[in-house]
Fold this protein.
Amino acid sequence: MARILVVDDDGQTIEQIARLVANAGHAVEFLLESPYLLAKLDVSPPDLLLLDVNMPEIDGITLLKKILATPHLKEIPVIMITGETDESLIQECFQLGAVDFVNKPIRPLELISRIRIALETRAHIHAIQAQRNALQRSKSFTDAILNSMQEAICVIERDTCLILEANLVFLQQLNLPRHRVVGKRCHELLHDKRHACQGCEGPASSQCILSVTFESDESHTLCFSGRDAVGQPRHTQLSTLPILDATARTERVVCLERDVTQSQETENRLKHLAFHDPLTHLPNRQLFLDRLHQALAQGRRHAQMVAVMLFDLDHFKSINDTLGHAAGDQLLQEVAVRLRACVRESDTVARLGGDEFSAVLTNVTDGSQVRKVAKKMLKSLGRKFILQGSKLNVTSSIGVSLYPRDGDESADLIDKADKALYQAKNSGRDTVRFFSPWDMEEAP
């Protein structure tokens, strides 16, 4: 049973994590006020720290830097918790030394999986540290330990970059016998493995995790992606553990390579599901609002117009009632394809739910440009659909609001587009209406 400390200013998040961690069989402690974290770690360091990025008094990034700058605390594995999806923030956390991150809202299976991986990695690293002296005393015992690992492991000397030891998994990945691996320089064997650590003779811009470890005398972790021999995606986590001499200088490094493809692909699928409609694969309401927020920010910055379009399918319920929900789902999928084909790559088409769709058009010159797009959508949807062998005519009603003419906030623009949609429905459907009064009376 591991002891896990959770630091977050959100009581509900702490309560959820505490329940999940306890159910997984671990002891959990929590801290709501970040300024007291370092003092608590000094008294009783945990096996694992879950640290929120955004906190009002001292943020998680600052605390992470302080922890890693404190010799007796820097070995505590830290998983960052964040509600942001900014890849640069996640990259910064990894570069600073965090072992992983978890997105908010918390997904139970993801959280428990990441905790398990972090604790397992910590246990592996500690096991290797515990056997450091045994490497000198008992070669056979060392081989037994290394070969029991499921990760690829090798030991590399500092001055020559020679591979001094390698386990069976490492040899199997290279498809080479032991005598052709041990005693070779690392870059001679690893230069074609298609990962970010290019070795001694790699591009000048590439990062060599061995060089970083030798220079800092500290452990480091590098995550990278590539393709395997048959072209399939492969995600790998490479960790280094420095073995120090009597002067506290790194004399050799233990490299541990873990295949995290399955967990990474699972994470990618979860991210996609969190922001996309599972039926049509269009952005969902949450991503639509985010895209609209970004479009408005860009519009303010460059003095450009933005169009918000809301529309639904006329009499969609009758299609479900007569042909069934399977046919209705097929119709929604085909509608999504047609709508997406009517806009530019920079625009967004989303499904808000049911037969309600939306669109955000950026860099708009005037209302006539939006009207052309709306007409294109109506014409595309007006082509017959073939559902279960039957031809079906479908129409749609569209409501439009424009930034900045109709408002400058997302909620206001959506509300006005919805009112325009109501006008379109009352005008006989299969039409488009703009919110602004000067455009309400125009024919579609």
About this structure: The two ends are 67 Å apart (CA to CA). The longest strand covers residues 233-244. Residues 3-127 form a domain with the Rossmann fold fold (CATH 3.40.50.2300).
